Amino acid sequence: MATFLYKLGRLAFRRRHFAALIWVALLTLAGVGAASAPVAGSSSFSIPGTEAQKAFDLLESRFPGMSADGATARVVFKAPAGEKMADKDNKATVEQAVKVLGTGSEVTSVTDPFKAHAVSKDGTIAYASVKYDVSGMELKDASKDALKAAAEDARHSGLTVEVGGDALQATPETGSSEVIGIAIAAVVLVITFGSLIAAGLPLLTALIGVGIGVSTITALASVLDLGSTTSTLAMMIGLAVGIDYALFIVSRYRAELAEGREREEAAGRAVGTAGSAVVFAGLTVVIALVGLSVVNIPMLTKMGVAAAGTVAVAVLIALTMIPALLGYAGRRVQPAGQKSRFLGGGRAAKKAGKPNMGTRWASFVVRRPLAVLLLGVVGLGAAAVPAASLQLGLPDDGSQPTSTTQRRAYDLLSEGFGPGFNGPLMVVVDAKASDAPKTAFSTVHDEIADLKGVVSVSPAAPNKAGDTAMITVIPDSKPSSVTTEDLVHTIRGAGGDIKAETDATVLVTGSTAMNIDFSQKLNDALIPYLALVVGLAFLLLIVVFRSILVPLKAALGFLLSVMAALGAVVAVFQWGWLSGLMGVEETGPIMSMMPIFMVGVVFGLAMDYEVFLVTRMREAFVHGEKPAQAIVTGFKHGARVVTAAAVIMIAVFSGFIGSSESMIKMIGFGLAIAVFFDAFVVRMALVPAVLALLGKRAWWLPKWLDRVLPNVDVEGEGLRALDDKAREGDEDRKLVGV
């Protein structure tokens, strides 16, 4: 592989006009496709194989035209202090608002609070339910404006009016902190390279790669049913790995220049050596992201595949466009150890022979491996303690900032009707096989009404055929509570006895039940997913490092870092530690997909640093150095760049903490802290400590396995062979000349 990539790098350097033109053309094509593509609606949310999804599908077929996936809004009214909603003026205001709301072209129904008994017991709070025939993301601006205008007109009469539901949902915003993250990345690159030109190359190529990836996702969003979160996550991951991959190749290029090689030769060798590590590091990230498909949740699969595609583009750009841009830069990219005239006058940055910080740190770890190992493991273990109290759920309006009308509507409904009113359960009774459907409906109603934790049960609402009915159940606890989850399981458990008695099937659905099933499905898939991803990457790393213990150590170190990161997420978003600093206004359960998503993404990113750092150690060991010296050599050449890459990735991920979307905020924080733990504790401390303790045994591989495994030549042995042939050719020419 090293030889092939070496030739590819030299070709891209030599034919830089052609290479750059291809990527610019792809960026233009993707941009045009994104600009001309129809506006995508919200992605459909389905969980195949769950009871909630089966009930939802049954409603679609038995209640045609009900628009089960249509947007909804709850316009909540609260009377001024000392007044009631039934007072003449207040009632007139509400009835006028209901009348106005019903005139919308996309509105299918509006309920009058006074006719639908939607007034609180104390008479101070009421709500009107508005149903639309399209989803929240597909609602026209005119419909949203009419909803806001109706609420504003009602406020003018003195009522408190707030709007909940998904009709006013907006595309999440990341805020200015994302730009700050990129700015920090730029500063780190300038410090690392001591050159504005060299620092600009990784940023430029990363932005081009992300532009192609996100534009392609936008262009295909409507066709493939992709949501806005998909492109945000693809941008987050693509930007981070794109900068890192380019950083490693540019850094190796400058190191090759420092050894006296010509620029084209240096570009080829940089792509042949560091590029090999980029390929395998990128492959582990792709495996981790595509592996999300084993969960069998379409939304998660699409997110993973889209992000994996962006990572693949980042790898290809690093291998082809970076050498092309290095060709354009020419002498403006200085050899390693030199600064540009603008930043240092072209002089050497350090005295020759003086050990750098990476060398000094590695030497210390090699002298005290056991102490470093114990300290690192204990520290990560302490950070992981909060993960033991992990509670999973999905965000609802109750997790929105208190400044939003959705959150204020949620609080008003809880105040007037109880916390469970924000998460009603929809019980679907399929009595098609029953001889007495009405009796079955009545039995289900009575059974549920007698259950503990139920506030109210609506009368059964049958369809036209009379073989299926809907029953709305209001719990006495909030949607995300364990008590509500237990109630869902209790109703489902009672369904077995009801079926035996009436031949009717009882199914529980609704947003709350869907969230519960979603969390359970993710929990069930976590172990198989972990086994698949870690197993495939383990085999891949055996091929790369030609060792059993090094990949095993890499996997165990990853588990430590991801558990510590989950503990930090629980401490901030569930316990509330530093929540004000992170902009978390409401603590609660951790997003259901967070553990499995972190496992996938963090594993891929963790293997990046493992490959980049340990490959240099392996290269030194293969070329004859002793194990301890090989560790120091690996840090001498790789620690500075890996540190810069980690800081950049942390900065990029931290930029998404400013998002208005709680899911993006949580993922940004989780990935940033995970990279910190993995890069600076696991890879920089635990890895050299373990390798120092293992010595030569770290690179042990059974002979039979060594014969079976393909030789991918990540260390660049093929390039050394080219050097030997070149030297032999020079000697032959000298002999002929004599």
Features:
738 residues, alpha+beta, five-stranded antiparallel sheet, 11 strands, 64% helix
List the helices and strands and how they pair.
Elements: H1 2-14, H2 16-36, H3 51-62, E1 72-78, H4 88-101, E2 107-110, E3 125-132, H5 141-155, E4 160-165, H6 177-193, H7 196-224, H8 228-258, H9 263-290, H10 298-329, H11 341-344, H12 357-367, H13 369-384, E5 392-393, H14 405-417, E6 425-430, H15 437-449, E7 454-457, E8 461-462, E9 468-475, H16 482-502, E10 505-509, H17 511-545, H18 549-574, H19 579-582, E11 590-591, H20 594-622, H21 627-654, H22 662-694, H23 703-708, H24 717-737
Parallel strand pairs: 5-11
Antiparallel strand pairs: 1-3, 1-4, 2-3, 6-9, 6-10, 7-9, 8-9
Overall pLDDT level: 83
Q: Quaternary arrangement of the chains shown?
A: single chain
**Share of residues in helices:** 55-70%
Number of continuous helical runs: 24
Overall geometry: elongated
Termini separation: 38 Å
User: What about the largest sheet?
Assistant: 5 strands, antiparallel
Structural class: alpha+beta
User: In total, how many beta strands?
Assistant: 11
Can you tell me the residue ranges where pLDDT is under 50 for at least 5 consecutive residues?
none
Radius of gyration over C-alpha positions, nearest whole angstrom: 30 Å
Strand portion = 5-15%
How would you portray this structure in words?
- By secondary structure, the protein is of the alpha+beta class.
- The chain has helices spanning 2-14, 16-36, 51-62, 88-101, 141-155, 177-193, 196-224, 228-258, 263-290, 298-329, 341-344, 357-367, 369-384, 405-417, 437-449, 482-502, 511-545, 549-574, 579-582, 594-622, 627-654, 662-694, 703-708, 717-737; strands at residues 72-78, 107-110, 125-132, 160-165, 392-393, 425-430, 454-457, 461-462, 468-475, 505-509, 590-591.
- Strands 6, 7, 8, 9 and 10 form a 5-stranded antiparallel beta sheet that branches. Strands 2-3-1-4 form a 4-stranded antiparallel beta sheet, with helices on both faces.
- α2 packs antiparallel against α10 and α20 (594-622) runs antiparallel to α21 (627-654).
